[in-house]
Every structure is written in structure tokens, then in C-alpha cells.
Design goal:
One of its GO terms (cellular component) is membrane. By secondary structure, this protein is an all-alpha fold. The chain contains 16 helices and 2 strands.
Length: 306
């Protein structure tokens, strides 16, 4: 057991590993929920399991949400169906690696969190203001990373619409068509049995599109998320020794872990036209997949300049 925990800590603490960290957080919460379910059934106290879910799922009623405001975020890390979390994590991995490669770790987290908040907001507004949903007796609670994952997917498709995935039995498909299919499917299913989840998909998709478009125009709507991330990482940063020499003091400008993880996205200089042409030639010869992380981020910076 200790070896398993050591492996988990080692994997979680690797630098530039944000995508895996998001997947691990979702997985740990899922396993914890399943553990509570098993213990509750064995002890014949299933109310403990329902209470645990109630603390994590987002309700649609304003009063209930005011009593549990943290659920606007925790719902997007909570699953109890193995196939639900498996699909969401595969979807997040496919598209999240593109966002992480081109925009860096900080922006991947920012897009995931903003997508989760946007999905929750869409669900909340629809169930309280749209008559069709408002008239449904009891409404629905919201859980699952689908809205946040679709936000990341739409963000990747907005950033790299012609990037190609090779799908089993289908062949090469541009990601803009894959993502469009899921957005349209969510729209039509928003009046079905899983209306709440599909409303979150639509909200997350809208956030993903707006996030990238604003970023391409020089505005980053994820800044509040980065600010919270930096505060959180500073709380757990080791404090320097009490006795510090003048030379050491001047050198202590170590950024936070999240800042370091995202530094490759924020400190890559704007490339000149020769660099851009060389990158485009490489894409023409070998495709997007052949680019290095730095080349991908330079290409994005060039798109902001144009």
C-alpha cells in the first residue's frame, strides 16, 4: 500500500503534469465515493452515501446552493458511474494534451475550472428561469466533468480547428467536426432524461469558445483562477531558512509551482516571420504532431500578433 501511495505522489508531483493531475483528482474522488457506497451498504446505512453525494453535487434550487456554494466546483470532479468517469477522462486527455502543449498548464486548469463554472451557471439559470425546466418536479442535481471536459475540447477545436485525430474504424477526422458533433448532440439532448448534464455541456462549450477567442485577442479570462492557484501553492511552499545571506536573499525569486508549470506558455517570445515560416513548413512536411512544445506555443503567440 505504501508503495502505491509513493507511486501516486511521484506521478502527481511531476513537473508540467497538470493534465494527469486533473485526471488523478477526478479518479481519487470517484474511488472515495465508491468506497463510501460499499461501506454504507455493508453497514446498512445507505444514508451516508447519499449525504456524501449531496455535499459534492450541485443543486438547482437557489436556497440549497447558498447552503453549499462549494458545489459549483466540486460537481465537476464527482462521478459514481465507472463508464461516466472513463469517458470523461478519455475525452479530457484527448483534447487537454493539445491545450497543455500549445497554451501551457496554467491555461489548461483555467479552462477546465472556467468551463465547470460556466456549465454550472447554465444549468442553474435554465432550471430557474426556463419554464420547461422550471416545471419539472424535483429538478435534477448536477455532477460529472462533462461540461469542463467539453470546454477543454471546444477550446482545442477553436485553437486548432484543422488538427486531425485518427479514429478507429473511421480514419482521420478534424477535431472541429468531432467537437461540433458533441455540441449539437448535447443541444438536442438538453430536453431529454439527462437535461442537467447536457445544459452543463452547452455552458462549458460556450466558455471554451469565448476563452480561446479572448485569449487570441490578448485577454485572459482565466486570470482569477491563476490568482487562486498561486495563493494555494504559496500556502504549501516551504519557508526559507531564518538566516539568509544577502546574496541568497537577492536570489530568492523562485516562482510558485503553478507559475513554473505555466512559464513555458507565458514566457515564449513572439517569433519573427522566419521562425513562423519554418514552423509552418514543418507542419506541411510532418503535421502538427511533429512540433515541439516550444514551437506550438510560438505558433500560438504568432496568431495573437496577427
Amino acid at each position: 500500500m505504501s508503495g502505491l501511495l509513493d507511486d501516486f505522489k511521484s506521478e502527481f508531483n511531476k513537473p508540467n503534469n497538470t493534465l494527469v493531475q486533473l485526471i488523478l483528482i477526478n479518479t481519487v474522488i470517484f474511488l472515495a465515493v465508491i468506497l463510501v457506497l460499499v461501506v454504507s451498504k455493508l453497514t446498512n446505512h445507505t444514508e451516508y452515501y447519499q449525504w456524501t453525494l449531496d455535499q459534492l453535487m450541485m443543486p438547482w434550487q437557489p436556497g440549497a446552493l447558498l447552503r453549499k456554494p462549494w458545489t459549483v466546483l466540486t460537481y465537476s470532479f464527482t462521478h459514481y458511474d465507472p463508464f461516466h468517469i472513463l469517458w470523461n477522462m478519455v475525452f479530457l486527455y484527448w483534447f487537454g494534451r493539445l491545450i497543455e502543449e500549445y497554451l501551457g498548464s496554467r491555461r489548461l486548469v483555467g479552462l477546465y475550472i472556467m468551463g465547470a463554472l460556466g456549465g454550472g451557471l447554465c444549468y442553474f439559470v435554465a432550471y430557474n428561469l426556463v419554464p420547461y425546466f422550471n416545471n419539472q418536479v424535483g429538478g435534477q442535481v448536477l455532477l460529472g466533468a462533462s461540461g469542463a471536459a467539453l470546454s477543454v475540447a471546444v477550446g482545442a477545436a477553436t485553437l486548432l480547428p484543422n488538427y486531425t485525430f485518427h479514429l478507429l474504424f473511421i480514419g482521420p477526422v478534424r477535431i472541429k467536426y468531432i467537437v461540433l458533433f458533441f455540441v449539437v448532440l448535447s443541444f438536442f439532448n438538453s430536453v431529454g432524461n439527462n437535461a442537467g448534464g447536457n445544459l452543463a455541456h452547452i455552458g462549458g462549450a460556450l466558455v471554451g469558445f469565448v476563452y480561446i477567442k479572448l485569449l487570441q485577442n490578448g485577454s485572459d479570462m482565466g486570470r482569477p483562477v491563476y490568482w487562486v492557484m498561486d495563493i494555494w501553492s504559496n500556502l504549501f511552499r516551504a519557508k526559507p531558512p531564518v538566516k539568509v545571506s544577502q546574496r541568497q536573499r537577492s536570489a530568492q525569486t523562485t516562482p510558485s509551482a503553478y507559475a513554473a508549470a505555466g512559464s513555458s506558455a507565458t514566457h515564449v517570445g513572439i517569433p519573427d516571420q522566419d521562425e513562423v515560416d519554418a514552423i509552418l513548413d514543418k507542419i506541411g512536411r510532418s503535421g502538427y504532431e511533429s512540433l515541439t512544445r516550444e514551437e506550438k506555443q510560438k505558433l500560438f503567440r504568432a496568431s495573437q500578433k496577427s
